[in-house]
Amino acid sequence: MVDRTKTKRKTKSKTKILIPILSLLLLTGCANQLPPGGGDVDTIPPKIEEIYPPNGTIKGQHNFASTYNQHLNNVNKFRRWLKEQKRKEKQKAKQKS
Fold first, then answer.
1. Residues of the chain where predicted confidence (pLDDT) is lower than 50
2. How many CB atoms lie within 10 A of CB 45?
3. Which residue intervals of 30-74 are DSSP H helices?
4. Where are the domains of the chain?
């Protein structure tokens, strides 16, 4: 016949050890998620390296693709900058004429 009191004591002692260890792992395992540290502000705009379809295409497809010299992490900012450059070019053209 198996002595059940000994087996209960063994499981209680294992539980007493495992619970603090698991809780410690849980609490220390979660790190504070922060974005990477800053650095200098990128003031140099990206330059277009390649455009599809090539310049001078008469009957091209409706698809347009472009390749830049650096990764665009926020395309909307670049689009605003591009619109601003076009607006400035139109103003200069009007001033010349």
1. none
2. 13
3. none
4. 1-31, 48-96
